[in-house]
Amino acid sequence: xxxxxxxxxKQDWDGFFGLAIDNxxxxxxxxxxxxxxxxxxxxxxxxxxxPAAALSILFGNIYYSWQAHQLAKKTGRSDxxxxxxxxxxxxxxxxxxxxxxxxxxxxxxxxxxxxVGVLACFLSALIEIALSFFGAWIRxxxxxxxxxxxxxxxxxxxxAMDFAFKTFARxxxxxxxxxxxxxxxxxxxxxxxxxxxxxxxVTIGTIIAWAGGFMDASKVSSAASELGFFFPxxxxxxxxxxxxxxxxYSYLSIIIPMALFNVIGSLQNVESAEAAGDSYPTRNCLIxxxxxxxxxxxxxxxxxTTIYIGHPGWKELGARAGYSVLxxxxxxxxxxxxxxxxxLAVMPLEAGIAIVLWIGIIxxxxxxxxxPARHAPAVAIGLVPALAAWGLMLIQGTLSEVGATxxxxxxxxxxxxxxxxxxxxxxxxxxxxxxxxxxxSVFLIEHQFNKAVYWALVxxxxxxxxxxxxxxxxxxxxxxxxxxxxxxxYAVGYLGGAFLFFIARYFRP
Length: 509
Fold this sequence. Notes:
Layout lengths: L11 H26 L4 H34 L9 E3 L1 H19 L2 H22 L3 H7 L2 H26 L1 H15 L11 H15 L5 H8 L11 H6 L5 H4 L1 H24 L6 H18 L5 E3 L3 H7 L4 H15 L3 H7 L6 H17 L6 H26 L4 H4 L3 H5 L2 H8 L2 H16 L3 H16 L6 E4 L2 E4 L7 H16 L6
Antiparallel strand pairs: 1-2, 3-4
């Protein structure tokens, strides 16, 4: 007998709070980066970009909720969880700093910079849709440890560690919400009145913040002055105006790798969901991501959308499909009302980041739990590139605070003494590098030396053209360096590894 799969369950509120906070952070980044860095007028950001982004998020949230219902009907299970969905963080930073900002700096025309950004989003979407037809094959030839270890690396660093630091920076405010989450999710304790732990954490954290003097009432007043009604309008004409040379090909060296990152990240998340028990069609997910980004570009958002990291965590919370719809409705409302900064002025991030921190821990644990025990070393080695990327972010932040840059110290002993050069090289294309090293490790563990050779050759090709490891320094920024033979030292190293693996079959056990 087919079990009933309700539209909403009580635990969907926990999932909603965590996912909404994650999305709010992305929206706040859009406001700050577009207005303060790229010189966009507030009316463009609040009146065009955010409403467009909201509808693209709403589209994906509704689709993935529907997809979860379909899988529940097909399998007769009531524990199906929908994919989380939102703005792609990697593309957000990539398109701002390597597409939108350069156009603005060259032309001082914020409208042109915005339109070129919209074009980048559109082209990225087309590439993802095209690659959707190869997604299942990529998952087939890639070991699960390679897919999950890259996610685990991001989860333990950029999610768990980052939010843990924020928690310990303000313990009076953040510890109680954190302990509520741990009590609810680790100990599985039911809180009074059956109210979800996420609701308690956010509510009590907000009360502590205001009672303890952590909040600024003037910011509430300032953010409230931005309120209005902003409904999206088509931007196809704006997109068409730059759908021609030189804009059509000027930034392909950024757009293509960003699209590849999006595809690989989505494949990893689909694999993560399957490891948690929910098997979704790879092609459908990639196409849905691409269509969501097309919706964004047609309405004026330069930022692609994608499946988010975290499915096993949301599922562990008990969230099903309703949390996705709740998130889409909430994000749409606050963007249409221009209330992004108001929400964050009223509710401190510390009240809800414990949920996201917990998600990072669960994803990391899954990488070990959902792979064969003998592949644990491969998972561990796959974490290293993400640790390097995270370490580089800390170094850049520290240098910025003291008024120095990576370019300034590039020829000094510091960059050699503390292995900064290696950290930077490992940071470049770290998602690919994580998969490659983990995959090679799996096939060496299994004595499948031919497959290890193939992955080493892939790494050599990617290194040769600068997709991984190659870089240039510009101030405190690390720029990807694409081109012919730009990563020769790394390509030679990988070729040496491929040769060694090839002859390894003749070595004695």
